[in-house]
Design goal:
The protein is of the alpha+beta class. It is 13% helix and 31% strand. The chain has 2 domains: 43 residues, no CATH class; 95 residues, Immunoglobulin-like (Sandwich), CATH 2.60.40. Strand 1 and strand 2 form a beta hairpin.
Length: 149
């Protein structure tokens, strides 16, 4: 199974489970069948772009205002998880009257396809953007001769 299909199935399963738990509401976005089967509207934080190149995938994760000590990137049993905590706005001696920035703990997980080499994943954080490079394993092309009887 290719990576796009696998991730699409994971997203579909998530929204099915969400609907089963909370029921059908207007808050549940419709799922479209585009590149990663992402919902058309998503209240997911942090936001993530996934790009496939010839020999690797890149995940671009927006984490503005954080330092590399505020979040973790780990792979456990073939699942990549990015988690951390965004502090609340410190208004000091003032009253916060409006906030649109998400705060508190966050976590995003992605089941990695078999073709990803989990031993050589690299992550770089710069200017509020985390780039996670997921190298693809080199798999030699297999030729199998099938006998006809």
């Amino acid at each position: 199974m290719d990576a796009i299909t696998l991730l699409g199935r994971n997203m579909e399963k998530f929204w099915e489970d969400f609907s089963d738990l909370y029921g059908e509401t207007s808050l549940v976005p419709e799922v479209v069948t585009d590149f990663w089967f992402e919902p058309t509207m998503c209240n997911c934080y942090p936001t993530v772009d996934i790009v496939r190149a010839k020999d690797h995938y890149n995940l671009y994760v927006e984490l503005p205002g954080l330092t590399d000590k505020d979040f973790n990137v780990e792979v456990v049993n073939g699942t990549l998880t990015i988690s951390g905590k965004r502090p609340e706005t410190d208004a000091k001696d003032a009253v916060l009257i409006h906030s649109e920035r998400p705060t508190g703990e966050f976590s995003r997980s992605f089941e990695l396809p078999d073709e990803v080499d989990g031993e050589h994943i690299e992550a770089i954080y710069k200017n509020g953007l985390l780039e996670v490079k997921l190298p693809r394993k080199e798999t030699p092309e297999k030729h199998i001769k099938v006998e006809v009887h």
